[in-house]
């Protein structure tokens, strides 16, 4: 049997192709809001960092009703670094809407998210969005989508997908370019028709794979997932099957379902619907299974790709520690990271020999940067090291992750990009020039070679280049890659930076600090023009005499300083350097602060 009153669907797409905007339009047209009600854009992007970065970070659920059918919608991230969110979201649905920009076409993350959906054998509805753009080319993009399905070995049934044309910002969808429509009814009709209703089997016991966990101040930890086989009632006796094989009985304290943007308390949840369960489940994690006591073998857990990048997190040990943050203890930082591991399936947190340090492994650099920014906003102070790729060993060989890199740029920048990527062990595998003045280049390149390259790429292309990549696989280690050809300007004392000192240091390199900024010994204040590090005194004051007055300093003009962002800082540091992060500041520093100890260490190494 199937529950014809429910449809569960995920919206998947490349970054910025309009997923969250489409969900906004679906919510508005479902009758959820009053006609004169003021509604903010991107309603599901309710995390501050999502609005700041303009991307979806966490997959989120909502529900709408159309012609008596409840449609559970899951909005997923489009960036490959948050692939774990896509994987757990797809475990709750029976179909997917693949959203593709009618101008930009198929991009790397389009391939990434579609691969996940096809692997689960989900039926796909293709929506070509932004057909109102001047450069829209819906016909060509549709051909690209067919080619992508064939390239990903889609079966015959998946190749017979329905497709619609859409302007998500205006809330319009239509089956043909020449058709007239002023709403999303064609899309809702396609969902009802093409997405199969969830299956019901009353002869099997209830099960629910935990696809997400949340927390309520009143109810404690909440488990979220799709109800399988039969209905779930508040008084049912349940068992928590942990991933490590443990079983523990518990009772439901509260049962909820999604309604619009919020939750609704219910006494029972029908099979196929998405439920939120509260109870004595404080130790539950994503991938666990909740089910009836008679279950012998629970459903298979989530299949999650392995992390590819690792960073070391530790407490802040600089002279300025605990002056700007409210949480500085190493144990509290570790506890917060282990909590994040429990609710983010693609993160791994590992202890090290140093009790004040942990290694955090994730899908990519951006995922870890978002985690650090979250900690900053919560008042944590910490230090992090340079991102490192995670290597594998097979048959006595060392393997490293390889990215399939796509670059779209003006023809004039092709030479500098190709030469720089070749130095980073990149291999050009395809080049497309359609005569429009822009070219598309494809490279296979080690993941570690791309760490820190994005800022350099934007500089080389004068901000007009587009760069995207996804994990292609693993290949034999490519050897050493030189990431930085410059050294660091390092403060040799504690004090306050002066304009006079910084003016005289400008010829040595690019500065990161401004006058009157506090510095300490071992703090990196700039980038040296040469390969070696240079210890400098940024606090030096101008000697005054009868001939030289203090007022002369007003004539000193310093080059503008670009504020140090977290991503730029992490991309800049070398193996012997750290980024000091507080709620108010981002500073660069040496691991060994004392200049004398650094010299001794270097001498012993030689």
Short description:
With 606 residues, the chain is α+β, with helices and mostly antiparallel strands. It is 23% helix and 32% strand.
Written description of the protein model:
- The structure is a single chain.
- The protein has 606 residues and is of the alpha+beta class.
- A hairpin with a 4-residue loop joins strand 34 and strand 35.
- Helix 3 packs parallel to helix 4 (108-119).
- The N and C termini lie far apart (74 Å).
As a percent range, the share of helical residues equals 10-25%
Straight-line N-to-C gap: 74 Å
Number of helices: 15
From the alpha-carbon coordinates, what is the Rg to the nearest angstrom?
A: 27 Å
Task: Report the strand count.
Answer: 35
Mean pLDDT: 84
Q: Which strand-content bin applies to the residues?
A: 25-35%
Major sheet:
11 strands, mixed
Q: Spans with pLDDT under 50 lasting ≥5 residues?
A: none
Secondary structure category: alpha+beta
General form: globular
Compile the SSE list and pairings.
Layout: E1 6-13, H1 19-29, H2 48-53, E2 60-66, E3 69-75, H3 83-90, E4 95-101, H4 108-119, E5 124-129, H5 138-151, H6 156-159, E6 162-167, E7 172-174, H7 185-194, E8 207-209, E9 212-216, E10 220-228, E11 232-233, E12 237-241, E13 247-259, E14 262-265, E15 268-269, E16 274-279, E17 289-291, E18 309-314, H8 330-343, E19 348-351, E20 357-362, H9 365-377, E21 382-384, E22 388-389, E23 392-394, E24 397-410, H10 414-423, E25 427-433, E26 438-446, H11 447-450, H12 453-460, E27 466-476, E28 487-491, E29 495-496, H13 499-505, E30 509-511, E31 518-519, E32 523-528, E33 534-536, H14 566-572, E34 577-581, E35 586-590, H15 595-605
Helix pairs in contact: 3-4
